[in-house]
Task: structure prediction
Amino acid sequence: MDLKEPELDKRYTREVWLHRALELLSREGQSKLRTERLAQDLGVTRGSFYHHFKNRDDFVLALTRYWAETFTVQVNALFEDPERPPDEALLSLMRLIRDRRLDRYDIAFRSWAAQEPLVAAEVRKVDDARYGLVRQLFSRMGFKGHELEERVRVFLVYESAQHTVSFPSKNRSAKDSVERRFRIYTQRCDEVDTE
Result:
């Protein structure tokens, strides 16, 4: 899975526009996500934008779907093998999120979704897809009921938002942190929830 910046060739393809828009959205927010700004960043005219996108809504939908495809659909496909041990898949997923910083655009899209219904609809689809995969992995590990649901929610919230909260540094490596969280996520509770 290649999550690097697309090469700037072939007269600035649609993918180049979308990748650059992701970076601008992440750095400066949706209010700065303007055609003129993107064209200036790419060193092209606004006409190039309209060569690739019909209008603003087409661009917004293309951008949210590009994010969804690159950071959820392609990722989920790597971990949906029912023959793969679910604990191994979950740990590999956590490592991939860390190593490729797959969460780096999440907060920007969630912020945008609060103001833009078109984006909100796509973010819900991403959440549903991520929830489905993670729930399946925990379920295959034998978790059920409230214990299953809470693990899935804690996993998704932390793994997609951990870089938005500033914690005091304790000199722990990112590798150790993933391994530690994995043990926390998969440790069995001593109490049975009877609700």
In short: The chain has one domain: 14-186. The two ends are 42 Å apart (CA to CA).
